[in-house]
Amino acid sequence: MKGIIRLPLAAAATAIAFASASADNPTPPDNAVRGIERILTALRSAQCYNDTVRFTVGMPQLSDDVVYEVALRQIPAPDDKLLPCSYVIDWQLTGRDEPSRGFSAYFSGNHYRYSSRRLQEYHYEADSMAFRPREIGGLKGDGVQRTAQFASLLPTLLADEIENLAKDPSCTMTLNADTIIGGISRTALRAVRHLEGQERTASEAEMIFDCSTLLPVRLHYENSPGTVSEQTVDADYLTATVGDPAGCPALTEEQLIATYPDVFANYRRSNFRVESLPGNPMPEFALPTLTGERYSR
pLDDT digit string (tens) for 148-162? Predict the structure, then answer.
């Protein structure tokens, strides 16, 4: 079964190309379509989802991998037209004497992201443009609620990624609905994207899901393989839990302030004062001088 078969994928309202995962045990094309639809449904409907992810980035020119610990929380918000889920993402860059930490959160048209002693806030009622898709220089971009660091690890946004791969004519996808990985039955989805008009592979993705819940277990990406910019990304989901939505309260700003009191007290613009700076590193800045040069730190 070496050829490519094009089939309609109802959830994507487009076509998807399948190649066999292995010559001896391919998933039949019709079953593959239904299998992917089930994965999309499971990812988008995960109720009161919490998980911890080990996120690893490797590059040939780096002596050591870059490793993050990421905590995810997702709550479905089907009536939200900007993003069908609320979330909190807490991350930490490990392997340093002083780990770097940050977080992102979105709910009800409000987005917050904190990193490098800087808190950014976006509120739809005050600035709707930040939340809208945009196109700059021929490149399309998503709103801030979708572009936060590690947001692509959330089940809902992972479903969007799979759907976008299904729409990409340069991408071939393979589903193995029941395979053994590490001695455990898993569902595996593989996507290979080729450079337009060329045989060279632009990227490869392997997504492993729990057979029963269809929640992610591991993601593996190879970007620009065989080139000087080659990059390997692995995301291992370690502690997935889902709960009763009735016991999963909606996210609020009060909850965020209670969780990150120092961040909101010291780095919020509305109360960012000189009095809050003693004992902290001097903030980064870049300002023009009277002689036409620039001071920066």
Answer: 999 999 999 999 999
